[in-house]
Structure formats: structure tokens, C-alpha cells
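Justification of computing resources. Each target in the renewal requires a structure prediction run like the one illustrated here; the chain below, 268 residues long, is used simply to show the kind of job we budget for.
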Amino acid sequence: MEFNNVLWKKLEGPYGGTEGLPSMLQQALTENDLEKLQELFEEYLFHQNTIYSASYAAFPHMAAAIEQTEDVEFRKELFILCGLIEASRDEELLSLDKCSEAESEQIYREYMESVERLSALVPAILRQCSALQTENTDESVYLVAAGLALSRVQHTANMLLTFSSGDEYVVPCDNCSEESYLWTKEDDQSAKLYLYKHDPVFEPDQHGEAIQPATIDPESSLYLVAELAGAANAKKLNAQLPYLASEMVCPHCQQRMEIWSSLHHIFH
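Resulting C-alpha cells:
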């Protein structure tokens, strides 16, 4: 949908209408203006972690900018923002605000076509962006999560976004539903995870049980995470994946459980 399409007037953002959004978005993308793009994203397209009909219409333009820009830093940020939108997308879209069924279908079709194009570019974009990586763990995890979302693995993407710091994971038991906590230790510089029965923030004197790393099953969604983490140079996440591929004994009911599978139950 072009920026001058009257259909924009039927779309909504967090504050109602989207007057001015098309021209501001066009300017930000044309000028590779990251500051303007972030402001638009937070105020119009992803306000309070929520997407809107305007988000669907803006997405194809953001995707096209990813494909066309030669500014790698701008491409990286656009890629993450597109990943956040796709990770938050409803499985089905029946109607958009004041749009007719045909208009809604047009917007949604263009959106999904853009997702498909980006999906094919995920490994290449992650490899290109890996050269920009710093010691910011969250940033590298957001890159991997965006790659997962745009590869249509939304549940896994949202799991990583929830635990983006890589310092702690909350694991619900499949049997008793009680939560356990996987944490790293401040005095341990490795990526090793330790199991705690209670939240270490409130009970810091617990003795953590070390999780033993395991081989990642090629049939598991974790294998794709490992591939993308390698491409994105997400070192800490990559080092932790063998621990997330392992098993643990629930400290509440003593039942053995698969960590990766149990983590996903929160997001289904």
C-alpha cells in the first residue's frame, strides 16, 4: 500500500487515527533516520508492546527498506523492529478497524508477502549484522528472536524475548505446574545454568544444582536457535543452549522434565 493511499485514514494506532504517520515513516526510511524510526515505532507501531492496524500497513515498507538500504546499522535495527511486530502478530486477521474485508485482506496479504521475503534473508542478515555486535547480550538475543519470528517460529521468539538477558529462566513443571528457576552465578564466568527451587532474588542463600549440558537434537526447534545464534554471533546464548537442551528434576515434585519443552509451555 503506497504512502499516499487513502486507506491509511481508516487505520488506527494507539491513540486512534494515524494522521501524519505515512509521511513521517516515509521520511524516516528514506533518510535512514534511526532516531525518527524508533520514535515512530514506539509511539505508533508498537506502543506498550502492542501492534495495531497501522503496524501491518507499515511493515511492508520497513521490509522493503531492509532489502534496499546499504546502511548495515539501520538494516539491523529495522530487522529487529520487524521481528518484534511479527512475534506479536495474531495467528489470524479477520478485519482491520474501519476497513472492508477486501481492504483488510489486501493489507494482510502484503504483510505476509513481506514476511516471506524477509524469511529467506534471515541467515544472510544475521551474518551481516554479527560484525556490529558488542557485549550487549540483549541485543544479540533480540537479533536471534527477530530471525525466529520472521522464520515463523513465534513461540520460540517470544520465549527468547522474555528471557533476553540470558541470566535467568523461569521453568514451569509439566507435572505439578510449580515454577523453578535457572540462573547463572555471578562468580561463574561461564554460561552454566543452576537450578533453584525458589526465586534467588528473594531467597539468595539457596544452593543451586548445576545443570549438565546435553547434545542439541537436530529435530528440535532449539537446533534452529543454535544455527541463528551462530550466524548472529550471539556467544552467550549459543553457550547456554546445551544447558537448555538438557533435563532437570523438578525440585517440587521430583519428576524429570525436559527444560526446553517446559519453557515453551508458557508461550503456547
